[in-house]
């Protein structure tokens, strides 16, 4: 495996993976296919040596040409923000479902290894206070249009494996954090809003629970699955780090030297998942993967420090995000 095609490689997680591969496996030739929507930035992969092709994963001719010259495809490209999916589900169906279909047809024609990046949100949620965790055999019960579109794309991958023998795997990961994340997501939004002198908003009671993983640990898990995973299998990815949204926001405010209650509770979004958590023991047991960033407070403090030092990177995004939320 020498030629790697990464879709959505100018987004947060995709670009982190491109940087991780450049650092850990510099022998790889990486091509990035990205539409450079509002969440993608060309400069985010600068210095990695990756070739950027600006284009749409629903462009069958372009996808076929790129896949034909690849040994493997890692598919990150997706619309991912729940709020946006509630306001307008159409782009989520097009990109996440039709785009995945287009890629699957191309890898089927050229017999190219395919890894599909998905989310733990396909499983829905669990009651607050429960101790159960989602695993690879948990039934799908998505709550939002976003999660439903990812569930549909997962099912397409499984069907193409079984029906056509496509060499594919799936990973369903928990919430990622780290530098360079778009300002619409909870952690960067809270940091940027606080640094700009505002009061971050927290949905509902703030007691909703999410499982968190550092983006670099997610990247190492993807590589383990791509290179050692069993074809046709799914792997949930997590680092055993559950926090309520209020705990996360409180840690960020504390790291910024602000009062831990310097936030506002705002009206909850429709269908908001209560608790999401996964059991990643299959990934650890079968592939020997372990996370390196096991201290969430330490990783979050480093993320806060990065945003402090790179105001020119996040401020334009944050201003646009704030304007959209205000509207």
What's the short version?
The chain has 327 residues and is an alpha/beta fold.
Describe the structure in your own words.
The structure is a single chain. The protein has 327 residues and is of the alpha/beta class. It has 2 domains: 3-176 and 212-237, NAD(P)-binding Rossmann-like Domain (Rossmann fold), CATH 3.40.50; 183-209 and 241-271 and 293-320, UDP-galactose 4-epimerase, domain 1 (Alpha-Beta Complex). It is built from 11 helices and 12 strands. The strands form 3 sheets. Strands 3-2-1-4-5-6-10 form a 7-stranded parallel beta sheet, with helices on both faces. A 3-stranded mixed beta sheet has the order 7-9-11. The longest helix is centred in the N-terminal third of the chain and has 21 residues, at 90-110. The radius of gyration is 19 Å and the shape is globular. The model has no long low-confidence stretch (mean pLDDT 96).
Helix content: 40-55%
Please state the average pLDDT score: 96
Principal-axes geometry comes out as globular
CATH homologous superfamily descriptor of the largest domain: NAD(P)-binding Rossmann-like Domain
Please indicate the count of domains.
2
Number of strands: 12
Q: How can the largest sheet be summarized? A: 7 strands, parallel
Strand content: 15-25%
Q: What's the total helix number?
A: 11
Report the end-to-end length measured between terminal Cα atoms.
47 Å
Low-confidence segments, ≥5 residues, pLDDT <50?
A: none
The Cα radius of gyration reads 19 Å
Helix/strand-derived category reads alpha/beta
CATH-level-2 architecture of the largest domain? 3-Layer(aba) Sandwich
Question: What is the CATH topology classification name of the largest domain?
Answer: Rossmann fold
| Assigned CATH class of the largest domain | Alpha Beta
User: Going across the major beta sheet, what is the strand order?
Assistant: 3-2-1-4-5-6-10
Along the chain, the helix and strand elements come as EHEEHEHHEHEEHEEHEEHEHHH
